[in-house]
Amino acid sequence: MGVTEQLARFAIETPAGFLAPKLVESVTEKFLDTIGIMVAGAHSPASRIVRKTVAEAGGVHEATIIGTAEKNSLTHAGFVNGVSAHALEYDDNTPDMGHISACVVPGCLAVAEQMNLSGKQLVEAFVLGFEVAGRIYLGLKPAMFDRGWHYPNMIGGLGVAVAACRLMGLDSMTTRMAMGLMASSGNGIRKNVGSAGKAFHLGNGVRSGLQAVCLARNGFAVDPDIIEGMDIDRGHQRFGLADSYAGHGNYSLARMVEGLGGEFILTRIPTMVRMHPCSSVSGAAIDGMIELATQHDLKPADVEAIDMTCHPRMLMIASYTEPSDSYRAKFCPAYTLAVALADRKVGLAQFADERIRDPRVLELMKRIKVTARDDIEEDHGWGSGETGWGAVKISVGLKSGKCLSGSYAYAKGWPGRPASWDDLCGKYEECAEGILPAQQVRDSIAMIRHLPELRSVRELAGLLAQPT
Protein backbone atom coordinates (compact mmCIF):
# COMPACT_ATOMS: atom_id res chain seq x y z
CA MET A 1 0.00 0.00 0.00
CA GLY A 2 1.06 3.55 -0.66
CA VAL A 3 1.25 6.16 2.08
CA THR A 4 -2.07 7.81 1.20
CA GLU A 5 -3.87 4.48 1.32
CA GLN A 6 -2.26 3.46 4.61
CA LEU A 7 -3.27 6.71 6.30
CA ALA A 8 -6.82 6.65 4.92
CA ARG A 9 -7.39 3.04 5.92
CA PHE A 10 -5.98 3.70 9.38
CA ALA A 11 -8.40 6.61 9.89
CA ILE A 12 -11.46 4.75 8.65
CA GLU A 13 -10.78 1.16 9.72
CA THR A 14 -9.44 1.68 13.25
CA PRO A 15 -12.15 0.15 15.47
CA ALA A 16 -14.00 2.37 17.93
CA GLY A 17 -13.17 2.09 21.61
CA PHE A 18 -9.54 3.22 21.63
CA LEU A 19 -10.03 6.26 23.87
CA ALA A 20 -7.66 5.75 26.80
CA PRO A 21 -7.93 8.26 29.70
CA LYS A 22 -4.70 10.09 28.78
CA LEU A 23 -5.91 10.50 25.22
CA VAL A 24 -9.29 11.84 26.35
CA GLU A 25 -7.55 14.32 28.64
CA SER A 26 -5.48 15.67 25.75
CA VAL A 27 -8.52 16.00 23.49
CA THR A 28 -10.77 17.71 26.03
CA GLU A 29 -8.02 20.22 26.81
CA LYS A 30 -7.68 21.05 23.12
CA PHE A 31 -11.43 21.45 22.71
CA LEU A 32 -11.74 23.67 25.78
CA ASP A 33 -8.87 25.88 24.68
CA THR A 34 -9.87 26.12 21.02
CA ILE A 35 -13.60 26.64 21.62
CA GLY A 36 -12.94 29.48 24.07
CA ILE A 37 -10.76 31.21 21.49
CA MET A 38 -13.43 30.71 18.82
CA VAL A 39 -15.98 32.45 21.04
CA ALA A 40 -13.79 35.53 21.41
CA GLY A 41 -12.36 35.29 17.90
CA ALA A 42 -15.81 35.46 16.32
CA HIS A 43 -15.84 39.16 17.25
CA SER A 44 -12.40 39.95 15.84
CA PRO A 45 -12.19 42.24 12.77
CA ALA A 46 -11.25 39.31 10.51
CA SER A 47 -14.14 37.13 11.64
CA ARG A 48 -16.66 39.96 11.40
CA ILE A 49 -15.77 40.36 7.73
CA VAL A 50 -15.97 36.63 7.10
CA ARG A 51 -19.32 36.39 8.93
CA LYS A 52 -20.72 39.23 6.82
CA THR A 53 -19.42 37.59 3.64
CA VAL A 54 -20.92 34.15 4.29
CA ALA A 55 -24.21 35.71 5.41
CA GLU A 56 -24.39 37.52 2.07
CA ALA A 57 -23.69 34.24 0.26
CA GLY A 58 -26.44 32.49 2.20
CA GLY A 59 -26.77 28.84 3.09
CA VAL A 60 -28.87 26.36 5.00
CA HIS A 61 -28.62 26.60 8.79
CA GLU A 62 -26.70 23.40 9.52
CA ALA A 63 -24.02 24.43 11.99
CA THR A 64 -23.44 27.09 14.64
CA ILE A 65 -21.06 29.97 14.15
CA ILE A 66 -19.52 29.70 17.60
CA GLY A 67 -19.82 32.76 19.86
CA THR A 68 -22.69 34.26 17.87
CA ALA A 69 -26.42 33.70 17.37
CA GLU A 70 -25.79 32.81 13.72
CA LYS A 71 -25.88 29.53 11.82
CA ASN A 72 -24.90 28.68 8.29
CA SER A 73 -24.05 25.75 6.05
CA LEU A 74 -21.47 23.18 7.07
CA THR A 75 -18.69 24.70 4.96
CA HIS A 76 -19.56 28.34 5.73
CA ALA A 77 -19.78 27.74 9.49
CA GLY A 78 -16.55 25.73 9.43
CA PHE A 79 -14.83 28.54 7.52
CA VAL A 80 -15.87 31.22 10.01
CA ASN A 81 -15.05 29.09 13.04
CA GLY A 82 -11.62 28.27 11.63
CA VAL A 83 -10.87 31.96 11.11
CA SER A 84 -12.13 32.70 14.63
CA ALA A 85 -9.92 29.97 16.12
CA HIS A 86 -6.77 31.65 14.82
CA ALA A 87 -7.63 35.34 14.44
CA LEU A 88 -6.42 36.23 17.94
CA GLU A 89 -3.12 34.24 17.79
CA TYR A 90 -4.25 32.55 20.99
CA ASP A 91 -4.67 28.94 19.83
CA ASP A 92 -2.34 26.09 20.70
CA ASN A 93 0.74 24.92 18.83
CA THR A 94 1.86 21.32 18.68
CA PRO A 95 5.68 21.22 18.35
CA ASP A 96 6.81 20.33 14.83
CA MET A 97 3.18 20.42 13.58
CA GLY A 98 1.81 23.87 14.28
CA HIS A 99 -1.78 24.99 14.66
CA ILE A 100 -3.62 21.79 13.78
CA SER A 101 -6.21 22.11 16.57
CA ALA A 102 -7.52 25.37 15.11
CA CYS A 103 -8.52 23.50 11.95
CA VAL A 104 -9.56 20.08 13.20
CA VAL A 105 -11.65 21.23 16.21
CA PRO A 106 -13.98 23.54 14.22
CA GLY A 107 -14.14 21.07 11.33
CA CYS A 108 -15.16 18.17 13.57
CA LEU A 109 -17.65 20.29 15.53
CA ALA A 110 -19.44 21.44 12.39
CA VAL A 111 -19.87 17.90 11.03
CA ALA A 112 -20.87 16.39 14.38
CA GLU A 113 -23.48 19.11 14.94
CA GLN A 114 -24.91 18.80 11.44
CA MET A 115 -25.19 15.02 11.75
CA ASN A 116 -26.33 15.02 15.39
CA LEU A 117 -23.50 12.73 16.47
CA SER A 118 -22.28 11.86 19.96
CA GLY A 119 -19.34 13.27 21.85
CA LYS A 120 -17.56 9.92 21.65
CA GLN A 121 -17.79 9.90 17.85
CA LEU A 122 -16.53 13.49 17.81
CA VAL A 123 -13.52 12.71 20.00
CA GLU A 124 -12.53 9.57 18.10
CA ALA A 125 -12.70 11.35 14.74
CA PHE A 126 -10.66 14.26 16.08
CA VAL A 127 -7.92 11.91 17.32
CA LEU A 128 -7.67 10.16 13.95
CA GLY A 129 -7.78 13.37 11.91
CA PHE A 130 -5.15 14.98 14.11
CA GLU A 131 -2.95 11.88 13.83
CA VAL A 132 -3.05 11.77 10.04
CA ALA A 133 -2.47 15.51 9.69
CA GLY A 134 0.44 15.47 12.12
CA ARG A 135 2.09 12.49 10.48
CA ILE A 136 1.92 14.07 7.04
CA TYR A 137 3.65 17.20 8.25
CA LEU A 138 6.29 15.29 10.18
CA GLY A 139 7.24 13.76 6.86
CA LEU A 140 7.33 17.13 5.07
CA LYS A 141 9.18 19.26 7.61
CA PRO A 142 11.23 21.41 7.50
CA ALA A 143 11.26 21.87 3.73
CA MET A 144 7.60 22.78 3.37
CA PHE A 145 7.94 25.67 5.83
CA ASP A 146 11.33 26.78 4.50
CA ARG A 147 9.95 26.97 0.95
CA GLY A 148 7.50 29.64 2.12
CA TRP A 149 4.33 27.65 2.83
CA HIS A 150 2.27 28.47 5.89
CA TYR A 151 1.35 24.84 6.20
CA PRO A 152 -1.56 24.75 8.74
CA ASN A 153 -3.98 25.43 5.86
CA MET A 154 -3.01 22.29 3.98
CA ILE A 155 -2.06 20.05 6.91
CA GLY A 156 -5.04 21.04 9.05
CA GLY A 157 -7.36 20.76 6.06
CA LEU A 158 -6.21 17.18 5.48
CA GLY A 159 -6.95 16.45 9.13
CA VAL A 160 -10.43 17.93 8.74
CA ALA A 161 -11.07 15.88 5.59
CA VAL A 162 -10.01 12.62 7.23
CA ALA A 163 -11.95 13.29 10.45
CA ALA A 164 -15.08 14.30 8.52
CA CYS A 165 -14.92 11.09 6.46
CA ARG A 166 -14.77 9.13 9.70
CA LEU A 167 -17.74 11.03 11.15
CA MET A 168 -19.78 10.52 7.99
CA GLY A 169 -19.05 6.79 7.88
CA LEU A 170 -17.35 6.94 4.47
CA ASP A 171 -15.01 4.23 3.18
CA SER A 172 -11.23 4.48 2.76
CA MET A 173 -11.35 5.03 -1.02
CA THR A 174 -13.71 7.98 -0.61
CA THR A 175 -11.34 9.28 2.08
CA ARG A 176 -8.44 9.06 -0.36
CA MET A 177 -10.47 11.07 -2.85
CA ALA A 178 -11.19 13.69 -0.18
CA MET A 179 -7.48 13.87 0.65
CA GLY A 180 -6.70 14.31 -3.05
CA LEU A 181 -9.21 17.12 -3.41
CA MET A 182 -7.89 18.82 -0.29
CA ALA A 183 -4.35 18.62 -1.67
CA SER A 184 -5.51 20.65 -4.68
CA SER A 185 -7.35 23.23 -2.59
CA GLY A 186 -4.56 25.69 -2.03
CA ASN A 187 -2.19 26.55 0.77
CA GLY A 188 -1.13 29.55 2.82
CA ILE A 189 1.99 31.56 2.03
CA ARG A 190 4.18 32.96 4.76
CA LYS A 191 4.14 36.54 3.47
CA ASN A 192 0.58 36.76 4.79
CA VAL A 193 1.75 35.95 8.32
CA GLY A 194 1.41 39.18 10.26
CA SER A 195 -1.95 39.99 8.68
CA ALA A 196 -5.50 38.71 8.74
CA GLY A 197 -4.39 36.40 5.94
CA LYS A 198 -2.93 34.05 8.53
CA ALA A 199 -6.36 33.44 10.07
CA PHE A 200 -7.80 33.08 6.58
CA HIS A 201 -5.33 30.23 5.99
CA LEU A 202 -6.77 28.26 8.89
CA GLY A 203 -10.40 29.00 8.04
CA ASN A 204 -9.80 28.14 4.42
CA GLY A 205 -8.25 24.85 5.52
CA VAL A 206 -11.44 23.97 7.39
CA ARG A 207 -13.68 25.03 4.50
CA SER A 208 -11.57 23.23 1.89
CA GLY A 209 -11.40 20.04 3.95
CA LEU A 210 -15.17 19.97 4.43
CA GLN A 211 -15.87 20.80 0.80
CA ALA A 212 -13.46 18.07 -0.32
CA VAL A 213 -15.38 15.50 1.72
CA CYS A 214 -18.75 16.64 0.37
CA LEU A 215 -17.45 16.38 -3.18
CA ALA A 216 -15.87 12.97 -2.62
CA ARG A 217 -19.05 11.70 -0.96
CA ASN A 218 -20.95 12.65 -4.10
CA GLY A 219 -18.53 10.75 -6.33
CA PHE A 220 -15.95 13.35 -7.41
CA ALA A 221 -12.86 11.32 -8.32
CA VAL A 222 -9.20 12.39 -8.31
CA ASP A 223 -5.86 10.64 -7.97
CA PRO A 224 -6.21 8.24 -5.01
CA ASP A 225 -2.51 8.36 -4.05
CA ILE A 226 -2.05 12.09 -3.75
CA ILE A 227 0.77 12.26 -1.20
CA GLU A 228 3.35 10.19 -3.08
CA GLY A 229 4.48 11.02 -6.61
CA MET A 230 5.77 8.59 -9.21
CA ASP A 231 9.56 8.30 -9.48
CA ILE A 232 9.87 9.71 -12.98
CA ASP A 233 11.85 12.60 -14.42
CA ARG A 234 9.03 14.37 -16.23
CA GLY A 235 5.28 14.45 -16.45
CA HIS A 236 2.54 15.43 -14.04
CA GLN A 237 2.58 12.24 -11.98
CA ARG A 238 5.84 13.00 -10.22
CA PHE A 239 4.25 15.93 -8.45
CA GLY A 240 2.26 14.48 -5.61
CA LEU A 241 1.71 16.54 -2.48
CA ALA A 242 5.16 15.76 -1.07
CA ASP A 243 7.14 16.77 -4.17
CA SER A 244 4.98 19.81 -4.82
CA TYR A 245 5.18 21.32 -1.34
CA ALA A 246 8.54 20.12 -0.03
CA GLY A 247 10.56 19.67 -3.21
CA HIS A 248 11.92 16.51 -4.75
CA GLY A 249 13.73 14.42 -2.14
CA ASN A 250 13.15 16.88 0.72
CA TYR A 251 10.70 14.70 2.65
CA SER A 252 10.25 11.28 4.22
CA LEU A 253 7.24 9.21 3.27
CA ALA A 254 8.42 6.53 5.70
CA ARG A 255 8.11 8.93 8.61
CA MET A 256 4.45 9.48 7.82
CA VAL A 257 3.57 5.85 8.52
CA GLU A 258 6.33 4.76 10.91
CA GLY A 259 4.73 3.22 14.00
CA LEU A 260 1.22 3.82 12.64
CA GLY A 261 -1.26 2.26 15.06
CA GLY A 262 1.03 2.74 18.06
CA GLU A 263 0.93 5.62 20.52
CA PHE A 264 -1.01 8.61 19.20
CA ILE A 265 0.67 11.96 18.59
CA LEU A 266 -1.75 13.57 21.04
CA THR A 267 -0.12 11.76 23.95
CA ARG A 268 3.35 11.38 22.44
CA ILE A 269 4.00 15.05 21.60
CA PRO A 270 2.77 17.53 24.25
CA THR A 271 0.95 20.56 22.88
CA MET A 272 2.00 24.12 23.70
CA VAL A 273 -0.88 26.20 25.03
CA ARG A 274 -0.60 29.91 24.48
CA MET A 275 -1.35 31.96 27.57
CA HIS A 276 -0.64 35.19 25.64
CA PRO A 277 -2.44 36.04 22.35
CA CYS A 278 0.63 36.48 20.17
CA SER A 279 3.40 34.53 18.48
CA SER A 280 4.15 31.25 20.25
CA VAL A 281 7.90 31.90 20.27
CA SER A 282 7.50 35.03 22.41
CA GLY A 283 5.93 33.25 25.38
CA ALA A 284 9.04 32.66 27.48
CA ALA A 285 10.28 36.20 26.85
CA ILE A 286 6.95 37.69 27.95
CA ASP A 287 6.80 35.56 31.10
CA GLY A 288 10.44 36.40 31.85
CA MET A 289 9.87 40.14 31.46
CA ILE A 290 6.78 40.03 33.68
CA GLU A 291 8.73 38.02 36.27
CA LEU A 292 11.59 40.56 36.33
CA ALA A 293 9.18 43.50 36.52
CA THR A 294 7.22 41.92 39.37
CA GLN A 295 10.22 40.74 41.40
CA HIS A 296 11.94 44.12 41.27
CA ASP A 297 8.87 46.35 41.00
CA LEU A 298 10.18 47.77 37.73
CA LYS A 299 8.50 50.63 35.96
CA PRO A 300 9.29 51.91 32.45
CA ALA A 301 10.72 55.12 33.91
CA ASP A 302 13.34 53.06 35.80
CA VAL A 303 14.75 51.47 32.66
CA GLU A 304 17.68 52.75 30.63
CA ALA A 305 17.84 49.87 28.17
CA ILE A 306 16.70 46.28 27.67
CA ASP A 307 18.72 43.76 25.69
CA MET A 308 17.21 40.41 24.76
CA THR A 309 19.12 37.66 22.99
CA CYS A 310 17.23 34.79 21.43
CA HIS A 311 17.40 31.77 19.16
CA PRO A 312 17.88 32.73 15.47
CA ARG A 313 14.72 30.86 14.51
CA MET A 314 12.67 33.09 16.82
CA LEU A 315 13.29 36.11 14.61
CA MET A 316 12.18 34.16 11.55
CA ILE A 317 8.78 33.72 13.20
CA ALA A 318 8.36 36.91 15.24
CA SER A 319 10.03 39.02 12.59
CA TYR A 320 8.48 42.49 12.82
CA THR A 321 10.26 45.47 14.36
CA GLU A 322 7.26 47.82 14.49
CA PRO A 323 3.68 47.20 15.72
CA SER A 324 2.10 48.85 12.69
CA ASP A 325 -1.20 47.10 13.42
CA SER A 326 -2.57 44.55 15.87
CA TYR A 327 -1.48 41.60 13.71
CA ARG A 328 2.13 42.70 13.39
CA ALA A 329 2.22 43.69 17.05
CA LYS A 330 1.67 40.02 17.89
CA PHE A 331 4.85 39.18 15.96
CA CYS A 332 6.95 42.11 17.22
CA PRO A 333 9.21 41.02 20.13
CA ALA A 334 10.09 44.58 21.14
CA TYR A 335 6.42 45.49 21.48
CA THR A 336 5.49 42.42 23.50
CA LEU A 337 8.44 43.06 25.85
CA ALA A 338 7.41 46.69 26.24
CA VAL A 339 3.80 45.96 27.21
CA ALA A 340 4.91 43.05 29.41
CA LEU A 341 7.03 45.49 31.40
CA ALA A 342 4.49 48.32 31.39
CA ASP A 343 1.33 46.29 32.09
CA ARG A 344 2.77 43.12 33.67
CA LYS A 345 0.23 41.36 31.52
CA VAL A 346 -0.02 40.48 27.84
CA GLY A 347 -3.63 39.58 27.11
CA LEU A 348 -6.29 40.54 24.61
CA ALA A 349 -6.35 44.17 25.80
CA GLN A 350 -2.66 44.64 25.04
CA PHE A 351 -3.32 44.24 21.32
CA ALA A 352 -6.17 46.71 21.06
CA ASP A 353 -5.48 49.51 18.57
CA GLU A 354 -5.28 52.20 21.24
CA ARG A 355 -2.65 50.24 23.17
CA ILE A 356 -0.34 49.52 20.25
CA ARG A 357 -0.44 53.24 19.35
CA ASP A 358 0.24 54.44 22.89
CA PRO A 359 3.22 56.84 22.61
CA ARG A 360 4.52 55.72 26.01
CA VAL A 361 4.80 52.13 24.80
CA LEU A 362 6.38 53.21 21.52
CA GLU A 363 8.93 55.30 23.41
CA LEU A 364 9.80 52.36 25.64
CA MET A 365 10.32 50.19 22.56
CA LYS A 366 13.16 52.50 21.47
CA ARG A 367 15.10 51.32 24.53
CA ILE A 368 14.70 47.63 23.66
CA LYS A 369 17.17 45.73 21.51
CA VAL A 370 16.47 42.18 20.30
CA THR A 371 19.26 40.15 18.71
CA ALA A 372 19.79 36.54 17.76
CA ARG A 373 22.57 34.68 19.55
CA ASP A 374 25.44 33.66 17.29
CA ASP A 375 26.39 30.64 19.44
CA ILE A 376 23.22 28.67 18.64
CA GLU A 377 22.92 26.63 15.50
CA GLU A 378 19.58 27.02 13.80
CA ASP A 379 17.28 24.03 14.22
CA HIS A 380 13.92 23.28 12.66
CA GLY A 381 11.89 22.19 15.66
CA TRP A 382 10.89 23.42 19.06
CA GLY A 383 14.27 22.66 20.53
CA SER A 384 17.42 20.75 19.86
CA GLY A 385 18.75 19.18 23.04
CA GLU A 386 18.07 21.71 25.77
CA THR A 387 17.72 24.72 23.49
CA GLY A 388 14.30 25.79 22.25
CA TRP A 389 13.21 28.41 19.78
CA GLY A 390 11.69 30.47 22.58
CA ALA A 391 14.66 30.40 24.97
CA VAL A 392 15.89 33.93 25.75
CA LYS A 393 18.21 35.93 27.97
CA ILE A 394 16.95 39.33 29.11
CA SER A 395 19.21 42.03 30.54
CA VAL A 396 17.67 45.18 31.99
CA GLY A 397 19.93 48.19 32.56
CA LEU A 398 18.46 50.60 35.08
CA LYS A 399 19.00 54.35 35.22
CA SER A 400 20.42 53.80 38.69
CA GLY A 401 23.33 51.89 37.12
CA LYS A 402 22.15 48.50 38.32
CA CYS A 403 21.70 45.63 35.86
CA LEU A 404 19.15 42.84 36.18
CA SER A 405 19.11 39.73 34.06
CA GLY A 406 17.55 36.31 33.68
CA SER A 407 17.40 33.36 31.30
CA TYR A 408 14.02 31.89 30.41
CA ALA A 409 13.47 28.66 28.53
CA TYR A 410 9.78 27.91 29.01
CA ALA A 411 6.54 29.85 29.02
CA LYS A 412 3.50 28.88 31.06
CA GLY A 413 1.57 26.41 28.93
CA TRP A 414 4.64 24.87 27.27
CA PRO A 415 5.54 21.22 27.97
CA GLY A 416 8.17 22.32 30.49
CA ARG A 417 5.52 24.32 32.40
CA PRO A 418 2.19 22.77 31.40
CA ALA A 419 -1.10 24.60 31.87
CA SER A 420 -3.58 22.96 34.22
CA TRP A 421 -7.28 22.42 33.55
CA ASP A 422 -7.98 25.37 35.87
CA ASP A 423 -5.60 27.54 33.84
CA LEU A 424 -7.50 26.62 30.68
CA CYS A 425 -10.82 27.33 32.37
CA GLY A 426 -9.57 30.78 33.35
CA LYS A 427 -8.54 31.46 29.75
CA TYR A 428 -11.90 30.16 28.49
CA GLU A 429 -13.78 32.44 30.88
CA GLU A 430 -11.66 35.43 29.78
CA CYS A 431 -12.47 34.71 26.14
CA ALA A 432 -16.21 34.25 26.75
CA GLU A 433 -16.66 37.24 29.06
CA GLY A 434 -19.28 39.64 27.73
CA ILE A 435 -20.20 37.26 24.90
CA LEU A 436 -21.86 34.26 26.56
CA PRO A 437 -23.89 34.31 29.79
CA ALA A 438 -21.97 33.08 32.83
CA GLN A 439 -24.19 30.02 33.27
CA GLN A 440 -23.63 28.96 29.66
CA VAL A 441 -19.91 29.31 30.21
CA ARG A 442 -19.99 27.09 33.30
CA ASP A 443 -22.24 24.52 31.66
CA SER A 444 -20.18 24.35 28.49
CA ILE A 445 -16.96 23.84 30.48
CA ALA A 446 -18.58 20.94 32.33
CA MET A 447 -19.83 19.45 29.06
CA ILE A 448 -16.41 19.67 27.40
CA ARG A 449 -14.78 18.08 30.46
CA HIS A 450 -16.93 14.99 29.86
CA LEU A 451 -17.07 15.21 26.08
CA PRO A 452 -17.01 11.44 25.33
CA GLU A 453 -20.14 11.03 27.45
CA LEU A 454 -22.14 13.65 25.52
CA ARG A 455 -25.18 12.18 23.79
CA SER A 456 -25.42 14.86 21.11
CA VAL A 457 -22.92 17.51 20.04
CA ARG A 458 -25.92 19.74 19.33
CA GLU A 459 -26.31 20.17 23.09
CA LEU A 460 -22.83 21.66 23.30
CA ALA A 461 -23.31 23.79 20.18
CA GLY A 462 -26.41 25.29 21.81
CA LEU A 463 -24.33 26.43 24.78
CA LEU A 464 -21.75 28.03 22.48
CA ALA A 465 -24.28 30.27 20.74
CA GLN A 466 -25.24 33.74 21.92
CA PRO A 467 -28.84 33.95 23.14
CA THR A 468 -31.11 35.55 20.55
Task: Summarize the topology.
Layout: H1 3-13, H2 21-41, H3 45-57, E1 63-64, E2 71-72, H4 74-87, H5 101-115, H6 119-140, H7 143-146, E3 149-150, H8 152-168, H9 172-183, E4 188-189, H10 197-217, H11 241-246, H12 253-257, H13 265-268, H14 283-295, E5 303-310, H15 314-317, H16 326-329, H17 333-343, H18 353-356, H19 359-365, E6 368-372, E7 392-398, E8 403-408, H20 421-432, H21 438-449, H22 457-463
Parallel strand pairs: 5-6
Antiparallel strand pairs: 1-2, 3-4, 5-7, 7-8
Description:
- It is a single chain.
- The protein has 468 residues and is α+β, with helices and mostly antiparallel strands.
- It folds into two domains: 3-268, Orthogonal Bundle (2-methylcitrate dehydratase PrpD), CATH 1.10.4100.10; 280-408, 2-methylcitrate dehydratase PrpD (60s Ribosomal Protein L30, Chain: A, 2-Layer Sandwich).
- It contains 22 helices and eight strands.
- It has a four-stranded mixed sheet, covered by helices on one side. Strands 1-2 form a two-stranded antiparallel sheet.
- A hairpin with a 4-residue loop joins strand 7 (392-398) and strand 8 (403-408).
- The radius of gyration is 22 Å and the shape is globular.
- Mean pLDDT is 93; it is low at 383-387.
